[in-house]
Structures are given as C-alpha cells and as structure tokens.
From TrEMBL:
<keyword id="KW-0547">Nucleotide-binding</keyword>
<keyword id="KW-0479">Metal-binding</keyword>
<keyword id="KW-0235">DNA replication</keyword>
<comment type="similarity">
    <text>Belongs to the DnaX/STICHEL family.</text>
</comment>
<dbReference type="Pfam" id="PF12169">
    <property type="entry name" value="DNA_pol3_gamma3"/>
</dbReference>
<feature type="domain" description="AAA+ ATPase">
    <location>
        <begin position="37"/>
        <end position="178"/>
    </location>
</feature>
<dbReference type="InterPro" id="IPR050238">
    <property type="entry name" value="DNA_Rep/Repair_Clamp_Loader"/>
</dbReference>
<dbReference type="InterPro" id="IPR022754">
    <property type="entry name" value="DNA_pol_III_gamma-3"/>
</dbReference>
<keyword id="KW-0239">DNA-directed DNA polymerase</keyword>
<dbReference type="InterPro" id="IPR008921">
    <property type="entry name" value="DNA_pol3_clamp-load_cplx_C"/>
</dbReference>
<dbReference type="InterPro" id="IPR001270">
    <property type="entry name" value="ClpA/B"/>
</dbReference>
<dbReference type="Pfam" id="PF13177">
    <property type="entry name" value="DNA_pol3_delta2"/>
</dbReference>
<dbReference type="InterPro" id="IPR012763">
    <property type="entry name" value="DNA_pol_III_sug/sutau_N"/>
</dbReference>
<protein>
    <recommendedName>
        <fullName>DNA-directed DNA polymerase</fullName>
        <ecNumber>2.7.7.7</ecNumber>
    </recommendedName>
</protein>
<keyword id="KW-0808">Transferase</keyword>
<dbReference type="InterPro" id="IPR045085">
    <property type="entry name" value="HLD_clamp_pol_III_gamma_tau"/>
</dbReference>
<keyword id="KW-0548">Nucleotidyltransferase</keyword>
Amino acid sequence: MVYQAFYRVYRPQSFVEMSGQQHVKQTLQNALLHNKTTHAYLFSGPRGTGKTSAAKIFAKALNCENGPAKEPCNDCSTCLSITDGSNTDVIEFDAASNSRVEEMREIIEKVRFAPSSSRFKIYIIDEVHMLSNSAFNALLKTLEEPPSHVVFILATTEPHKLPLTIISRCQRFDFKPLSPFDITERMKVILADASIQSDEGTLKVIAQAASGGMRDALSMLDQVVSFSGNELTVEDALLVTGSIGEDIFYQMAKALQVKDAGAILSLLNQLIIEGKDVSRLAEDLITFFRDLLLLRTAPELDNLLEIISGEERFKLLAQEFNPDTLYSFIDVLAKTQQEMRFSNHARVYIESALLKMVNFSSSPVQQGNKQAVDSELYEKVMGLEKTIEELRKLIAAGVNTGQPVVGAQQPKKNVSKSPQSFRIPTGKINEVLKAATKTDIQTIREEWAGMMQTMQKSHSALLEETEPVAASDNAFVLKFKYEIHCVMASANTSLRSDLSEALSSRTGKGYEVIYVPEEGWLKVREDFIRNNKLSPKKSEQSDISIEEAAAEEMHSFVQEAEQENMDPLVTEAEKRFGKDFIKVFND
C-alpha cells in the first residue's frame, strides 16, 4: 500500500477526535441534537485548525443513517462513503482552482435536484474567498434561499475578503489556533498508534514550530519520524524543524547577564552557520524571554512554558533578571522583528538588537548602585521640599526673605491675549509704504491666485488666509488673518524662497516679502497715516513742502488700497444707500 502522510491518515472522523475548537463542536452538536441546523455555515480561521475536517464530520452527522446525531456512527454506508469521498450528495468544491462564474452557475443549476441517497445535499466550498465577484453574485441568491434539502458549508482562511452580503447569510464559526498542549496530546495518540517512541521535549519542539496548526505539526512529525526512525529525540526535532535548543538560549541569556557582547555574537554566528532562520530566531527569543518572565513573576504556572522546561537552572536564571530588563528585551526584539520584514539585512538588525540588549542588562551589583542613587536623589528631593515649605511659612508670616520671589509680582500672561507674540517689522513696512505704488500692488494681486496654484500644497495652504496690502518696486507687505499662521510662515525659510521664486517667474521682478498679522498691519497703517497727516509748518509764501506733498499722495494711496480691499458688493451698496445704512457681517 502507498504510504500516506500522518495528517491524512489521522484526520479526525468525529467531533470527539477533533483537537481544541470546543466552542465550535458544542454549538454544532447542540444544533444537531435539537434539529436546529441552518442552510449555510462559514468556517474561518488559520490553516490547519480543522475547518474542512469539521465540515466533513458535520456532513456525516447530518446524513448518518442513525441521525441527525451528535456524533456520526462511521459504520453505516453513508458515513463510509462520505469518509472515502464517494458520496455524490456531499460535494467538495475547491474555489481556488474553480473561481470563475461558470463553475458556480453549474453548481447552482444542480442545487434544485434532490439528493440521491442521503438526507441532505451538502456543498463544502473550500477557500471560498478565492471566488470572483461574479461568482459571489451568482451564489448570493441561492445561498440566501436554497431548497430545504441543501446545506452550504464555506471554509476560508481570509474571511475579510468575503462580501458582507455573503457573511450575513451564514452562521459564522471562527476556528482558533490550537494550543501547544492540544497539538502535543494529538501527537501522543498518533505515535502510540504507530508504535513510535518519543519524549515530551521532542513533541514540545514540534508543537512550538507548528504555530497553532495541527496539519503543520503532523507534517513535521512525519518528517522527524522519517529522519529518526522508531525513536524520536530532541536533537533530531531541532534539526528538522530548524528550531533552537534551550541550551543555546541559556548560554545567550548568561552572556547578556554578564554583558559579554563577543560571546553572544559568536553564538548568533554559530546559529546562522548551522542554517537557522534569523527571523525565526527573533521570534524564538521573544518566546524564550516570555518564558523567563513567566518563571520570574508566576513560577507556579510552569505548564504554560513554550520553549524552556521547568528545570531548576532556568528558575535560577529567571531570578537573576529584573522584570524591567525582561520587558525591555521583549520590546527590543518585537521592534526588530517588525523592521526585519522590510529589509534584506536581517542579520544586521538581529545583531543590533542583541547589542542593545547587552546594554539593557544589569547585574545585581548594578541594581544595588541604582537603588543607592535613587535613595540619594530621594533625600535631595525631600530636603528641597522642606526648604520650600519653610519659605512659604516665612512669606505667610510677612517676613522679608531678602530675595524677590520669581514670578510673584508678575501675573501670568495669557498667551492668546498677549498684544503681540510676533515681532512686527514696522520699519520695513514704513519703507514699503513710503515707496508704495499702485502699479506694483495691482500686479501682485492679479498674479496672486495663479501663483498660489503653482506652489507646493503645504505652502499654498499656509497662505490661504493672506492678502497683499502694499507693494513698492522691490518689496511687498503680506497680511495674515491669523497671527499663528504669520509666525509659522516666518519660521519657514523654504516658504519664503518658494514664494519669491513663484512671484518672480510671473511678474518678472524679485520682490522681498514682509509678513505682518492683520492687527499689526492695521496699527502700523494707522500710525503711518497719522504721522504723515501732521500739519506741516508752512513757509512765508504758504507753499506746500515736498515731504507734505509726498505724505498726501501716500495717504490717498492707502485710502485707495483700502477701497480696493473692500467687497465690490459692499462698495456698490454704500454708493446707493450711504454708509450709515449699511452693516456688513462676516461669516
């Protein structure tokens, strides 16, 4: 007879043989006992956790000649035919290789035919998430209201890829990864039936490497049996699975404890030479330090250990590490594991992580020094608090301490209500106003909208609430509605250069930009107008001086600029009805 793998020979044939998944088994068995089975089920979960096996067992329990029953008898012709795959009323459909809508329509056409020899016609669709959208749409209506003799069982490892309309029409069962204990117990049964000798340590290594999947565990067990023969050893299991023995972990932990970087890097190099996977090493190290932390904080729960055994040397080793140090080790390794996924230099990352852990580790002597430092710091803090309390009593009693109390005579300033947190360049603004021309400000305003579209989005967003208010031949004043935006813009050197380049490319002139918040602009403008409207001393001929004429011209320019800044609708309304009858509200 052709040899068959363990996971095929020892596939569970009843609910009692299934490992774990107690919540699934109990719900399905109660539905069978009380005749409350439904028309569609969805089994989801990681690979090798029993989804297809549970579907076949449920199909046998539904169609068993002695059922529907809590457990299939596995003796009647229906159960035997379902087990060997010859029953025409239990159809297994692999959606991974039959994902097109044509295959799904063929199934739907045959759904209406009654079962030939069984109580129900059962469709088991494996890897259902591989179906195309058209196939899902074709299945949708039939899945919602199938004939009374049809039951659909959908199995998938990626339920998030299924349309919600499909999921909502099924009873969903989430299969969980199997625990190392469940996997180990199942392997013991299989090895006992196959008359193969093994110990607990060997099975624990295989169960840890399986990561919660029974099929993976049985495949590795099959491989170890082929390598070792009729007696399995821990060394053979470590070699076949690529895992690391607890002795190596013990040596690495001791090297970390004494801060021997050379020893730990040598051990790492030895493991890499032996062909150990670096990513797997990081994962195993996380589990190892988790086991040490468990022994350190809850030694009575040694049955939860995954990599190391409950030997006395590991219990002593766990006591030599501070829990905070173990937390730091796990944190460093977890971050390193994430970074290794996106790099081709995984060895560099694991070496760096181990060196960080060497620096994190601390001996009992260092812990004593740390406690001494903490104690000294505590005494200093207590002394300062005592001094502060004495000063408070003196101040309350009205005694002059001879030194001013910092901040006592100055009330807290409300930052949001401070007159100006931005230093306004009044001198530069006045220079622009003195040399301001109508042509320059009109040119800049005409090109402003188009220029904003050519700038970076982050820069244009910062200049959203701004407006050019005055311009000379070589500079212009940019008013900000909010002071915080003005402060941010003044600190952004790339914005200033980007703005000058964009404006120069559109106007042909290199303007220097001067930032000012709206409140500051109003004050500077008012001061400028007031200073230039002072009554000048007239000469004997009552001639107007050149400075006065320039001031008058500048005043008219500012007033004209104000008119241009106003909304044209408001201006027109004021012309028609007068300013006294107009009120403007800004949304």
